[in-house]
Every structure is written in C-alpha cells, then in structure tokens.
Amino acid sequence: MKRPLLSLALLLGCAAAPLTAAAQAAAPVATQPASDIAAPVLVSPSDWARMAEAADRYPMFAAERARVEREVRAAMAAGINVPQPRDLGGGVTHEQHKANYKLIAGAGALYRLTGDRVYADFARDILQEYAALYPTLGQHPAGRSPVKGRLFWQALNDSVWLVYASQGYDAIRDTLSPEDRRRIDDDVFRRMAAFLSEQNAAYFDRIHNHATWATAGVGMTGYVLRDPDLVERALRGTQRDGEAGFLRQIDLLFSPDGYYAEGPYYQRYALAPFVIFARAIEQNEPDRGIFAYRDGVLLKAVDGLLQSTYDGLILPLNDAMPDKDIRSEEIVTGVAIAYAQTGDPGLLSIARAQGRTLLSPDGLAIAQGVASGAARPFAFRSMQLRDGPDGDLGALALLRAGGTDDQMLVMKNTQQGQGHGHFDRLNWLFYDNGNAIVRDYGAARFLNVEAKNGGGYLEENETWAVQTIAHNTLAVNSRSHFDGDWRRGEEHGTTPLLFDSGNGVQIVSGRTADAYPGVILTRTLALVEHPDLAFPVAIDLMRADGSEPAMYDLPLHFNGHIITRGFAAEHAVTERPVLGDRAGYQHLWVDARSGAEDGDRSLTWLLDGRFYTYRFAASAPTQALLVESGANDPNFNLRREQALIRRMEGQPDASFVAVLEPHGAYDGSAETVTGSTSRIRSIERHRGDAAELVIVTLASGKTVALGVADEIGAGTRHIVRVGGQTYQWTGPWARFDRETTR
Predict the structure, then answer these.
(1) Of the given ranges (188-197, 316-325, 507-516), which has the lowest mean pLDDT?
(2) Could you tell me if 493 and 397 lie in one domain?
(3) Helix, strand, coil proportions of the chain in percent (round to 5)?
(4) What percent of the chain has pLDDT over 90?
(5) Which CATH number do you get for residue 485?
(6) How far is it, in rounded angstroms, from Cα 573 to Cα 130?
(7) Which domain holds residue 687?
(8) CA angle 39, 41, 47 (to 5 degrees)
(9) How confident is the model at residue 435 (pLDDT cuts 50, 70, 90)?
(10) CA distances to 17, 29, 30, 512, 536 from 25, in Å
C-alpha cells in the first residue's frame, strides 16, 4: 500500500453531516425552492459554508483540500486542455479527459470552500470547452466496446465523467450568466444524458455496473438541472416501469447480505455510483428512504466489501486486479458516506488506514471523528456472504483467525458473476502473515497500460485467466467448468452445505452438480487450531462423484520458493513440455512430474520469512506435476506463477485430501532459521458410512480427525472405522482429538 493516490476533489456528501465526532448524520436539508434554479442541490449551501468554516481545524480534511488545491493550481498554470478524443484507455487524450472531470469537481469544491471566484471561473472555462467540443463528436474513433463512448473509447467512461463533472458543475452553476448556464446545461449535460439514456437505451437499461454508472450520471444531472424526467428515467429505466434503472439494479445485483453479483473487485468499482447517487437521492428526496431500501442493502454492501479484503487488499476473485486496495476512490467514498449514515467508529479506523478523506460533508465527518480519537478497530470477522437477489445462489465464505494479517481462508461458492465471472466454482484462497499463500490469478490485463492492448483485457484473459485450471478447483478431462460458457454458468448457482465458525474449527462446505455433465463436485475446507501447532492449518477435502471414469486435475497455485519436495519426480531439464492444448492447459509448462502413487506426499515452500508445508493424499494413485504459467505467450502477457497439480486418471469417483500448515521462521538478516520442519507427520483419508474421515497425525503423536458427512442432515448418524478405532458422530461434521495408537 505504498503507491501514490490521485485525489478526487469532490465525492457526493450527505445532506447535513455532523460537526462533532459524537454527532451522527442529521436529517437532509430540504430541496432548494423551485424559484432558485441554480443553487447547489447535491451539497447544500449551508453545508458548504460549514465545511469552509470548520475545514482547517481537522487535519485530514485540511490535507485533502491542500492536495486538491495543488492539483487544480497546477492545471490552471498549465492551461485548459480539452483534446479531440482519439486514444484507448491509458492514452493521452483518455487520461486528459479523465483528469478534467476531476479538475471540474475539484475546482467546484474549492470555490465553495474558499469563496475564490478564480476556481469557479476555471471550472466554467473547462465546461465551455466541452460545450464547444461535445456537440461535434460521434462515436469514439478508437472505440472497441460494444457501446462506444464519445469522449472515451467506451460509454462506461463517459458515464463516469458525468457522475463527477455534475458534482463540480452543481457547485458553480449559480455563478454563471444565464447564457453560459444554458449553453453548458444543453450542450454538455443534456447531450450526454441523452446519449447514454436515449441513444443507448438498451445499454442504460442493463442490470450491470456499466448501467449503474450511467443511471447515476443521468440521475444526478437531473437533480442539478431540475429535470424530474431525467431523475425518473434514472431510477426506473427508460420505460419508467421499474423493470430497469437504478432501483432495479439494487434489487438484482446485491444479495440480502450486500454481496455484489460480479464479485468483490467489481463491487469496489460499482460501489461509487451506487452510494454517490444514493446520497443525491437522500439529499433531494429523503422520503424515498434510499439507505433503508431493501433493509439497508447499500450500507451492507460497504461492510461486505470491507470484509472481502485481506491486509487492505481486495480479494482477487473474478476479473480482478491483485493490487486494488481500500485506498481506491470508490472505497474512500463508500466509507465516508456509510460513516455519515451509521456513525460506526470502526469505519474511522478504515479511513485512517486510507490516509485521506473527501471534500464533502461526509469527508468532514470522517476527519472530525479521526481527530477526536473516536476510531475503533473495524470488526473483521468470519462470515458467509450470500449471493443472488434472494440469497439462494451460493455464498462467499470468509474464515479468519487472529488479527487482520493472520490466517484467512476464502471459499468461493458463489454464482458465475456475469461476464466478469471465472470458471472456478468451489475455488479457495489462503492468506497468512500478510501474504497470499494460495493465490488467484485474477484478470490477464494491464489496466490503462496502452501498450498492452490499450489497457483492456488481453487475449490470455480468455485462454488462461478465466479457465478452471488457472484456479484452485477441480478440472475434469482437461475442460473448464460449464465448458467455458459463462452464460450457461450464470444459470446455475452453487449450493452451500454448511458453515460453522466455532472456536478451534471453522468449516465450510459447498457443492455443484452442474459444472460437468454427470459429475457432482463437493468440497469442504476447514481452519483448524491445535496447541501442538504454531498456527491454524487449512484442511481441504475435495470429492468428485462421477458416472464414468475421468481424468481429474486439482491445482494448487501457491506463492513462494520451493524448499523441499516430498516426492520423487522426473524433471524437464532440456526442454519444457506444455501440459495441453486447450482450456488454459496450453499456457502451462511442466517442470516436474511424478509417477502415480498412493500414500501421502508433501511440498514445502518459503515466503516472507515463513515456511508452508502442503501435505496431500487421495482415494487412488495420483501424479504430482509442478507447472508454471507462461507457455504459448509470445507477447509476455502472463505473469510467471507456479502451481502443483494433482492428477488422478481412470476413476469415476475421486477424493483429494490435503492439509496446509504454516510453520517456522527464517530471518536472512539475523541468519536464523527456526521451525523449518513440519509438525505434521502424516495425513490419511478413510471412507465410511456416507462420510469421509481425514486424520492428521502430528509429530507429537497426537491426531486431529475431521469427519465430514456426504449430506448435511442434522440428525443423521455416521460411522467410520479405521483399524481398531471407531469414529462416530451425528450431524454434518465432527472433530476428534486423540493420541496415536498405531
């Protein structure tokens, strides 16, 4: 979390934010009288006045104002630049138009906070340039999106421009002459709103994050221009029947727990238009009760997104970039607006970690709370976030132990995630010591790096990143789940079987019967503590129940330097064979391959001063393959990342079991090594009466056994006999701690 941030001058504030840390958000100020056609309506004049009076007393707010002032003053000195659009994302004109909406917003805020007319005039002059340019534009010349923009290569970015520029315009609109106001109203904002919502009505009416930005931009424009038709169009869709529009998107894109259909990364991106427009609605039409809508789902979405982070980084599920963190503009916005609504002191600790706030009433409330010492640790916790509008299309499971940079196990039992989804049902991730240990590739993309496909998705996103073998879940017969058809995947949810976050054992299980014809996949993951182990360990049991013999591949994409390999293998020394020719296999080099063996084996690696031993076994002989991504990649688009693949062939049914153990410490500076040897002696799996038993034997001689039933009936009794011992339990799972007798 060391990269610099571009500050955004204004993100929508609340109607009457608190002026003391103890106060909570007050009721919204009434809408301006109809006779006042130009005064600010997104932030009231009285709130602007209070911010101007209080700003210097609160360091975070003062620092943000100073940062914005530096950026705006530098742009003023350089001169206004509103270029003819020509570039893809990351190109010069793209970045300039992006900078301009920030400058319009920033200059508008600075005018209200300082009273210096030079800022209002600067924002006006930029907008006058757009009033001259925009009516001359057709489709963007480099547009490759299905819906091309005018200022940008895709209409999405035009929508983002409208969301932020409308806020700056609202702040200065009452300083303009009637002629200037009419020209900017008509030739910029009305034209853009018509382009997005009339000329691209099908795009506007989608249930998708692109349409969220579009509805937010058009709706906020409607408030600023005092045009209720634009507002109604934004809220209820182009037909005004409620089957589309902003409210319908809230209905269909969020689960009752606030989980977003496309996953945490796109929840981060979509959060901004949802909460910014919601604030505009609350300001202008408080009777709608937008923040109470669907039991407060937008506020739940802020909490759920923060829960879906590790050490500040957003979990890289679906088309995610691995470096996005809580300091992103969208999350800064969400935290500030949520704090103004709830007064949750845990959000202040997030804001403190973000290191910045907003030039808005919400941002001032954050600055006041932090300055008063009201911050409390955010309550990160083990939880399950249901997916789907009714919460019945799966769930994202988050299991945590220790502090925010200790152990976290993630199981992805969600639905597809629309077109941004990956073919990775029952995928898992594991974090420890501030690092991703079992990791996910995310998207094959260099965001806004023009030299890499204009900053858009690379070809390898389809051929590698979305494919099942690129993730930590079971691939059957060298194919991806749903044969790589996301629309078919979207028709099928994942079934959560159990979730329990009790002391000592946290466990989650899920199932899909639709990823492959004739194959039912069931996976159970547990985070288990034991006094003889230095840290909690992750136990993994993956089962496939098939109708005919198949080849099963279970990859583990691990992060670290291999220390010891607990199995014999033939190495590819003179040339690197490629694993396959489709479904992502064509991008994997094979570095080592073992024979098909019974019994348990292991692999130990080192990352950031800690050792990790992965011990694994299966129901039939398996090969172990050490592979690396990057094959068939002539443009060097893929990161080189390693994986262990366990392969079982010729069996209709398969069970794979493993335990991942963090242990020891390595200090290169002090030249010390402790605990580099695993404290686990062996792992076994045994089949019983409609149940599986995993036995982990520790170096101390003690055993931890985990019994997992095939079905989750609470009253069903299960028995597994191992040698002279009997393990029996009632219900979906049980833990047994014993001394070794064999």
Answers:
(1) 316-325
(2) yes
(3) 35, 25, 40
(4) 89
(5) 2.70.98.70
(6) 61
(7) 679-742
(8) 90
(9) very high
(10) 5, 11, 15, 44, 41
The count of structural domains within the chain is: 3
Residue 192: give its domain's CATH number.
1.50.10.100
List the one residue out of 170, 166, 153 whose CA is nearest residue 41: 170
Residue 705 pairs in a beta bridge with 695, 736
Q: Are 662 and 694 in a shared domain?
A: no
Q: Which residues are catalytic?
A: 266, 420
pLDDT of residue 339: 98
Alpha carbons 127 and 134: distance in angstroms, whole number: 10
Whether residues 513 and 637 share a domain: the answer is yes
Domain for residue 3, yes or no? no
Side-chain half-sphere of 692: how many Cα atoms within 13 Å?
22
How many C-beta atoms surround the C-beta of residue 650 within 10 A? 11
User: Which residues, listed in sequence order, are joined to residue 551 by a DSSP beta bridge?
Assistant: 649
Residues 266, 356, single domain; the answer is yes
d(CA 70, CA 84): 26
In single-letter form, the type of residue at position 427 comes to N
Question: What are the helix (H) ranges across 311-360?
Answer: 329-342, 345-354
Look at residue 722 and tell me whether its pLDDT is greater than 70: yes
553 and 609: one domain?
A: yes
Give the mean model confidence (pLDDT) for residues 494-517. Answer: 95
Q: Residue 322 has which token pair? A: 């691995």
The mean per-residue pLDDT over the stretch 516-534 comes to 97
> Same structural domain for residues 333 and 413?
no
- Does the structure show a pLDDT above 70 at 323? yes
At residue 136's C-alpha, the angle toward residues 135 and 140, to 5°, is: 105
Q: Do 588 and 623 fall into the same domain? A: yes
3-state secondary structure of 20: coil
**Position 26 pLDDT exceeds 70:** no
637 contacts 665 by C-beta, under 8 angstroms: no
End-to-end CA distance of the chain: 50
Residue type, 338: A
Q: What is the pLDDT of residue 25?
A: 31
Euclidean distance between CA atoms 684 and 658, whole angstroms = 9
How does residue 635 score in pLDDT terms, banded at 50, 70 and 90?
Answer: very high
Last residue of a domain, one of 650, 678, 706: 678
Give the range among 16-20, 68-72, 131-135, 664-668 with minimum mean pLDDT.
16-20
Summarize pLDDT for 73-100 with one digit per residue, the tens: 999 999 999 999 999 888 999 999 999 9
Residue 9 has pLDDT above 70, yes or no: no
pLDDT, residue 20, reads: 32
The residue type of 401 is A
Residues 394, 413: contact at Cβ < 8 Å? yes
Only one residue has tokens 């949520």, namely 338
Mean pLDDT of 150-154: 96
Residue 347 included in any domain:
yes
Provide φ and ψ at 157, rounded to 5°: -70, -30
Average pLDDT over residues 150-155: 96
Asked if the structure places residue 251 within a domain, the reply is: yes
Residue ending a domain, among 371, 405, 429, is 371
In a domain, 226, yes or no: yes
Backbone angles phi, psi at 59, to 5 degrees: -55, -45
Q: Are residues 686 and 663 in the same domain?
A: no
